[in-house]
Amino acid sequence: MSGAGEGDGRLGLRILGGFLGAGKSTWLRHHLHDHPTPPVVVLNEMGAVPVDGRLLHRAAALHVVAGGCACCTRREALIGTLRAICNDRTRAGDASAASGTLILETSGIAQPAAIAGAILVDPVLSRHLRIEAITVVVDGAEGAARLAGDPLARRQLEAAHEVVISRLDAAAPQALADTLAMVRRLAPAAPVTAASFGAAMPLPDLPPPGPAPALGADEREIVSVVLPLGDGPGDTGDWTAFGLFLSALLHRHGQSIFRAKGVVATPRGRLLLQAVSGHVQPPELLPEGVAADDNRVVLIGHVDRPEAIAAAWAAMRAG
Amino acid sequence: MCSGCGYPTLAGHWADAADTTAPERIARRQARARLLAAALAPWRIGVTASMVSPELVLARPDGARAICRTLDEVWLALERWRVPYDPLAAA
Predict the structure, then answer these.
(1) CA A268 – CA B85 distance, rounded (Å)
(2) Could you tell me the residue range of the domain that residue B65 belongs to?
(3) Any CB–CB contact under 8 A between B90 and chain A?
(4) Which of B18, B28, B71 sits opposite A247 (nearest CB)?
(5) Distance between CA A303 and CA A46 in Å, rounded?
(6) Residue B58: enclosing H or E segment and its boundaries?
């Protein structure tokens, strides 16, 4: 990405999309480490509790649009945030200079094409921003099944200018081959690269893909549930019960809960807890301190009865 | 590695990530066993966490037992026993 748009003074924008848990934040986190001049980042999170921003502290500046999807319910908030960034750039007097870049990480259920469309029709943003790429991240381990079963994931991919297949380290060769075949089927013109823990990796030699699956149409609404832990952000009292609850919940309902994430206070410190498709990643120890959003874990998925999850957790807490 | 407490490290179930000392691990397992026993009480399944080994032991009323190293193994054992435990069932 070259920064300001090809000498016309506009700020280059990369839209980073992909389904829940695909690895967008991991890719971006690595990108920030590698980038000689870190970009400004706009982070859109579906949950009311923004978590991924804790990992993106190397951004030149971080703006969060949380509590909904930037392509629909939070579209106006996104437009307002982008306008503010453009205004600041103009005030700073570098609006015609090739200074800085901008990356927008969408929520896992956002439609990158809709966001791009909203930017292009906005009279202010279209003068200040130039969309350089829509990059869509696809989970190499589970992408084929997700793309086959979820039309939302397919629509995201169809908007891609370029595709990153993530989690090369975790993907079995056959799963990776099937994912790659599905990506090439749905986004035949998009160049495909691969990554492991966000770092670019060459695709290995792969077996032939299996038969092309039928494309399903699970159109259920994706919703989020916030589970509070402890009596406040620093209270470690619920960790044991929560470990038990979340483990049982994901074992039984992990196929419909795509994502779980939050920062949890524990006796060891603040642990970043993340789960994708029912699998909990090794928790990451965060720097000391307490943030207002600690001890709130967001679950996102095709949850038929979100109130039941909150009630069940409350019952377990109460013992 | 101490066979009793699993310290310094076990293979690494995420739910064990908060404990850094042997006493913490032992206390956590005991507390987890109590919570699990309460959850499984409708099926009369007992749960114990020994002080001398890192596993949880599930026991059915007919005497059958399952030794589970992690919570994931607990859920699999319950499935084998056809115990329909669902954390959302009571909600």
Answers:
(1) 30
(2) 14-80
(3) yes
(4) B71
(5) 14
(6) strand B56-59
Is residue B50 domain-resident? yes
Closest chain B residue by Cα to residue A304: B88
Q: Do A243 and B15 touch (CB under 8 A)?
A: yes
Least confident stretch, A42-46, A181-185, A276-280: A276-280
Instruction: Give the tens place of pLDDT for each residue, A55-95.
Output: 777 888 899 998 889 988 899 999 999 999 999 888 877 65
Residue B3 lies in a domain: no
Q: Residue B28: its chain A contacts at CB < 8 A?
A: 240
CA atoms within 13 A on the CB side of B34: 9
Name the residue in chain A with its Cα closest to that of B20: A268
The verdict on B60 touching A (C-beta cutoff 8 Å) is no
Whether B8 is in a domain gets the answer no
User: How many other CB atoms are there within 10 angstroms of residue B73's CB atom?
Assistant: 16
Query: In this structure, what DSSP letter does residue B49 have?
Result: E
Q: Kindly state whether A229 is in contact with chain B, defined as any CB-CB distance less than 8 angstroms.
A: no
Is the CB of residue A259 less than 8 Å from the CB of residue A275?
Answer: yes
Q: What type of residue is A7?
A: G
Residue B9 has what pLDDT? Answer: 47
Q: Does position B26 have pLDDT exceeding 80, yes or no?
A: yes
Query: Which value does ipTM take for this structure?
Result: 0.90
How close is the nearest chain B Cα to the Cα of A204, in Å?
28
Number of domains in chain B: 1
The reported pLDDT for the residue numbered A6 is 54
Q: Pick B90 or A39 by higher pLDDT.
A: A39
Q: Is residue B72 part of a domain?
A: yes
pTM: 0.71
Cα–Cα dist A48/B69, whole Å? 35
